[in-house]
Specification:
This protein has helices spanning 12-33, 62-71, 74-79, 93-104, 122-134, 154-160, 174-179, 184-187, 205-219, 247-260, 291-306, 312-321, 326-338, 351-355, 366-373; strands at 42-47, 83-89, 114-118, 138-144, 166-173, 225-233, 236-244. It is of the alpha/beta class and 374 residues long. It has a seven-stranded mixed sheet, sandwiched between helices. Strand 2 (83-89), helix 4 and strand 3 form a beta-alpha-beta unit. Helix 11 packs across helix 13. The chain is globular. The protein starts with 11 loop residues before the first helix and ends with a helix. Bound molecules: S-adenosylmethionine (SAM). The site of S-adenosylmethionine has 16 residues, from loops.
């Protein structure tokens, strides 16, 4: 990333990152703003690496995307009496002043939220606002668009994952991982020797980093759902790591990813190096199916048949944590019934079904044969 990142037009990859953020944001906002059914009466959105608000062409960056999106919910915010607070931070004084100006150029008429703009180092401002994030009855969305990957220390990660009703997205650049492969911070993510030797497949850098954070979560006995999405820019790969304590959060994130990558839902490029051309599909349907889906189907069948997965709830969680939409699970189970691997039965797999009574998967044909004999 160059120093004058914001005086030039955003690159395609930056636009993809912002698109994913915006898609998630507009899914997240109505959960807390459009009705007052839950316990949440305060909504905080933190953009700690905000930049000046626009690029060289006047295209909105993350703080202006947030600012404008909230106005769409003005009526609901007032009707439901919800306190909405935006916290933007940018360490560079020039950019921070530019952000102030770009915000003051916006519609300020009857803002349905409060707004703070800081010009501080992330660590300082994060600590200052941390008590606000901890308030009861509060929902937080934390966007950490750092340059590189050093700002999200284990300490910050543990603090974020000890919060309630919080979703976060942070950004990691693979080029930094390679540049610092001899450093302790890199070696903790990857199996590298002391002098930094070892293979890191660029395409899967973020999957491994996500696995690292999964380990931190399980070692600390926390229950969080993590997802990730990779974005290619030249030879560099940037990754978004997403986290939510709530199933609905990860469900919405995975859906947002599939809107950007309709083939695999995890990258804006051919991450598994398969050369599938959707505009000229192969005559053999299996050749058009990404490896990610084939592997998922094989695993799902194996877990169902071995009894490791026994219910529609478990199938749903297994799918969504692998970044797979529930429709693929439904299709696979339908095929298993068609192939007489499991008996015909009604198994609903979706977020809504997950919130309802659990249904066990029947593997035996006993009842059916008994019925036939009768
Ligand atoms: C990738 S840019 C953010 C872009 C922004 N999200 C947007 O959409 O335009 C990262 C920003 O973080 C700022 N920054 C870098 N280190 C920082 C730190 N330690 N604390 C706060 N901001 C920092 C940089 O000046 C830069 O503007």
């Amino acid at each position: 990333m160059t120093r004058n990142f914001h005086s030039e037009p955003f690159s395609e990859s930056t636009l993809t990152k912002l698109e994913l953020f915006q898609r998630y944001l507009v899914e997240w906002l109505p959960v807390f703003l459009s009705s007052r059914t839950g316990f949440v009466n305060t909504v905080n959105i933190f953009d700690f690496f905000a930049g000046p608000g626009i690029d060289g062409n006047g295209v909105d960056g993350s703080p202006l995307i947030i600012y404008k999106s909230i106005f769409l919910y003005s009526r609901f915010i007032r009707k439901n009496n919800i306190s909405v607070n935006l916290y933007f931070n940018e360490i560079n004084p020039e950019k921070s002043a530019e952000l102030e100006k770009n915000i003051s150029d916006q519609n300020k008429n009857r803002r349905p939220f409060s707004l703070s703009i800081d010009c501080k180092d992330f660590i300082k401002v994060f600590d200052e606002y941390y008590p606000i994030m901890q308030h009861p009855n509060t929902a937080n969305l934390i966007f950490l668009d750092q340059q590189g990957f050093s700002q999200i220390t284990d300490d910050i990660f543990l603090k974020i994952t000890s919060l309630n009703t919080t979703d976060f997205m942070f950004f990691i650049a693979s080029s930094f991982v390679h540049r610092f492969r001899k450093e302790k911070i890199t070696k903790k993510y990857f199996r590298l020797s002391d002098d930094g030797q070892g293979t890191i497949d660029n395409n899967y850098v973020h999957r491994e980093i996500r696995d690292y954070y999964e380990t931190i979560i399980s070692e600390n006995n926390r229950k969080w759902f993590l997802g990730q999405f990779s974005i290619k820019k030249g030879s560099n790969i940037y990754g978004i790591i997403f986290g939510s304590k709530n199933t609905l959060g990860i469900d919405k994130f995975v859906r947002s990813c599939w809107k950007i990558d309709p083939l695999r839902g995890n990258a804006n490029f051919d991450i598994d190096r398969e050369n599938i051309d959707t505009s000229m599909p192969s005559l053999f349907p299996e050749m058009n199916k990404p490896t990610k889906i084939k592997e998922y189907e094989l695993e799902l069948e194996k877990y169902v048949m071995s009894g490791e997965i026994t219910s529609n709830h478990e199938i749903y969680i297994f799918s969504i944590l692998n970044g797979i939409l529930p429709r693929f699970a439904r299709a696979k189970l339908k095929q298993m019934m068609y192939d007489n691997i499991i008996p015909k039965q009604k198994i609903n797999i979706s977020y809504n079904a997950y919130k309802e009574k659990m249904i066990n998967i029947r593997l035996d044909y006993g009842t059916k044969f008994k019925h036939r004999m009768d």
